[in-house]
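Study the following:
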Amino acid sequence: MWQQQSAAVRQYLVVTGNYWAFTLTDGALRMLVVLHFHGLGYSPLDIALLFLFYEIFGVITNLAGGWLGAYLGLNRTMQFGLIIQVIALSMLLVPANMLSVPWVMAAQALSGIAKDLNKMSAKSSIKLLVPADAQNTLYKWVAILTGSKNALKGAGFFLGGLLLAAFGFTAAVLMMAVALALVWVVSLVLLKQDIGKTKAKPKFRDVLSKSRTINILSAARMLLFGARDVWFVVALPVFLSQTLQWNHSQTGGFLALWVIGYGAVQAYAPRLTGASKGLLPDGKAATLWAAALTLLPILIALALAAQMPAAVVLVGGLLLFGVVFAINSSMHSYLIVSYAGSEGVSLDVGFYYMANAAGRLIGTVLSGWVFQLAGEGTAGLTACLWISAAMLAGTVLISCWLPNAGSPDSTSLT
């Protein structure tokens, strides 16, 4: 029994290691594209459109990827994600005059497919390694996985800014493509088991969740991540670069440190929310933490409107927002893995992360469009913050319908 469990854990660690490597390059690519194309004179809306297909195909991939994971096994979907990301990076190695908006959008579409295949594979695997009666352990493992992933994504932001400043766009992309290709080769050698492959072949219509609880949580997740990205993806880095006159290294470094800190808080979230005392997230906890988060973009917007020092307001506001958002995200990540059924777990997780991708899509488009429409600068960023607050208010309302601890629905899916 121990040898079987040890082998499963080793297999999962390989999946996670590959996911970490992918996440590092994904974060670096995001920062490279934002900073490079802003430097070429692209408008905020143009930059947002570069990521449009990334998010759209993320929505599609999470639906289809959950089905593929159940049908083919999670290791294969993870390997597909790695090689697709190598292809996406290679598409950006063409001469500069070929880097048109449609071409970059196509490359980002492949990157979106790759990213969500990897995420779905890693998040689904953990459900199969933790006993059903060990929910406290499940919460901690999910928090560590999610937190470490986001810390590496933050490191990727820093890496992207650093590589762009040191080597230029093309050389930076080439180095990442080669490194990820090596990781893919290693995964082909080490990954053997078909984790997550269902005994009964699922039909494609099964990708749509039939669980009321998962549907509610997915809707809350969509608005939660839309509320983050509506000001974080395009408006914030352009504001730091354009209005505060930060250089590429400063912008990439600051956002990297923010995401790394955000990931650290996610990993530590179980202790912050009382898991050591046996307290686990439920609908009430998710609602209260979402309500606390709603106040932060409102306070930041009011401070900017009052012409308080923008750098101080944003640095301080982002630190607080990052801590509270990380706890919200960690709770949601635990809840979906806990609610998901053990047989065909990737179907439930895939549907949930489809909603997550839809929220990022909405937030990304609004981030560029609203920021530009409102006049960019402080006015544009403030407008994005008010939309963020409205989305978070929607998250609070939807979260009220999640089951609380001890209610009949709270254990029906675990």
